[in-house]
Amino acid sequence: MSGRARKAVDPLAAVTEALERGLPVRLDLPRRGRLHLDRPLPFLAVHVNRRSAPAARAATMANAAYLLAGNLSDAAAIVRLVGERMREEFGAFLVLDFGELARDQLAADTPYLAPFEISVSASPDVAAERAQSAFVGAVEKIDGRYRAPRIARPTLAEDPHAGLARRLPDIPTLTVRVAPIYRVPTSRAVYPELQGRLVARLVDAGLRAAGQFARSETALAPATHRALGRRVFVEAVARADRAMDDIAASFDFLLAVTPINADAAFEAFRAAGCERAPTFLYRPLAIEIAARKKALFSIALDRFEDPVLERLYGEKQQELDLQLSMLAAREDARFVEMSRALYGSVDGRLAKVAVDILEATAKPGRKAAPQEVDHRYVERRARAMIDRYSAQFSAFAPSVEVRNDLPPGLMVSSDRLLIARTTTMARERVEALLSHEVGVHLLTYCNGSGHGLRLFRSGLAGYEGAQEGLAVLAEYLVGGMTTARLRLIAARVVACAAMLGGAGFVETYRLLASEHGFTPPAAFNIALRLHRGGGLAKDAVYLRGLLEILAHLRGGGDLEPFWLGKIAARHFAVMQELSLRGLLKAPRLTPQFMTAKGADERLARLRAGLSPLDLIA
Predict the structure, then answer these.
(1) Which keywords, in A-to-Z order, does the entry hold (predicted)?
(2) In the chain, at which end, N or C, are there fewer CB atoms within 10 A of the end residue's CB?
(3) Does 470 map to a domain?
(4) Where residue 144 falls among pLDDT bands split at 50, 70, 90?
C-alpha cells in the first residue's frame, strides 16, 4: 500500500481494527498522529498537534498508552474508542491531556528566577479531582534550581484549554498546560537540559495521577506509579542499542591500556636498581578514533519515547566518548586527567579508610607459607566453576584463555576469562578470586544479555564501582578475604591517590615497597596497574565500591537488582523501576557464592554493619 493510500484510511476505522486485533497497538495516524498502547491500562496520555510543543509531545509519548492527534475532533473520537475498550477491562478510564501555553508569561528580566506557570484542571468528578491532587503534588516538587512552578487549578468551565475534556463529559480528564520555559527568549533555540528535566517531571506527575486513579477506581494495584510506565521499548531504542554496542565491542579499553611486556619491564626495572621508570609496550589500536567518535554521536537518542532509557544511553555515550579520548591520549599527559574524570578522584574519606587498613595490618601474625598454585590449576578450577553455572543455565558458556601478554592475574573481557600465564597465587585464594571474576563479572554479563538490550551486559555508565564492590564482597562470602588481599585493595587506593597527586612510577613503587612493605613484584604490579596508559585511576574503585555495597547492606538494601546486569549503585532505583515496568527479565543465573557454606551468617553480619577490616577471614 502506498503512503498516500495509508493516509486516506479513515483513522477511526483503523483504530477500531487495531483494537479488535488486540494489544499491543502502534498505529500511525494523519497529521503526525499516532496511537500507542503497549498493554491494557486504565489511562491514556493525549497531545493534540496544533502547534509546536515539543516538551508536551515528548511527555505524552513517554507513556505506555498515548495518543497524538491532529485535531480535537479526531482526538475525542479515538479516546472514546480506546476508553470503551479499557472500561470493559478496568471499569474506569482516565485521560491526561498534555499541552503547552503559548507564552512563558511569568518570565521577566529580574535579578531572581521567576516562577513558571502550570495549569491543571480536572473534570468535575471525584476521581479526576483525586488524580489532579496527585499530579499537583508531584509537580510542586519540580527541581527549583532553574525556576519553580506556580500552579493554577482552574475549573473546567474556566479553563480555555480544556476543549478535549468538554468533548468527553463522561470520561475523567486532566488538562495540563505548561509554560514553555525551555525556550531561549527571543530565539527559536531551546535549553535541552531544562527541556529534558521538564519532560521527566511531567511524565512522573502523570504517572502519579494515573496511579492514584488506578488504585481508587480500578482493581489494578501497582506497587508504585512507575510500574505503569513503558513495558516495551520502541525500535529506535533497539537500533541505538545495537549501534552503541557495536562501538563498545570494537575496542577493549582495559586491554588497550594494559602493557604487553610486564615481565620484561619488571626485569629491566629491577636491573636498573628500581631507580628508572620502566618502558611499557601496548597493543596497537585496531580502530580509528575519529571514525568511532563520529559513529558514536550519529546515534540518535531523541526518538526513544522513554526518558529513563534516553538518560541511560546518553550517559553511556559520554562514557564511551571519554574512553575513546583516553585511547587517543595513551601515554600522553592528558590521559591521567581524563582518567580522573572517568573514575573519580580519591577523596579524604576513602584515603583514610585505605591508610587505616594498611596501618592495622602492617604487622601480620606469623602464618605458614600458603601452598602456591599456577595458571594451570586456576584454569581447571575456573572451568569447573563455569560448568556449575552452565548446569544452572546451559547458554552460559564463557571462554577461558591463558595469555602471554598480560601481567600476573585474571581479568574479564566481555564473555572471556583471561588468565595470565605468569599467574601464581595461594591455593586458598582461588575459589574466592573465581567467585569475583566468574560469579560477578561473567554472571552479570550473561544476565545482562537477557533483557533484549545489550547495554545491560556491556555495562551502564560508571558500573565498575558497584561491580568491583560486589566482586570483593563475593570473596568475603565464600570465606576467602585474607589480610593480604585487603592490604592489596587498600594499597591500590593509597597508590592511586599518590599517582593522581603527581607521583611518578618510581615514587609510587617506593611508597608501596618501602613505606608499606610490599614485595618488589607486588609493588611493581600495583604501580604498573596505576601508571598504565599514562595514569589509570580505576584501581581505587575496588575499595570505593566495597564501601558503597557495605553501606547499601547496612541500610537494609537488597542485592538482587545488582545481578540483573552491570549497573552502578546510582542506577539501583532505575533498575527497580525497569523491573517493575516489566522491561527487565528475571536473572538467568544467581551467584553460587550467595549459598556457599557460611554465606548466610556472613551476610547477616554485613547487614548488622561491618567495616572492611572486619571482613578478614
Answers:
(1) Hydrolase, Metalloprotease, Protease
(2) N
(3) yes
(4) low
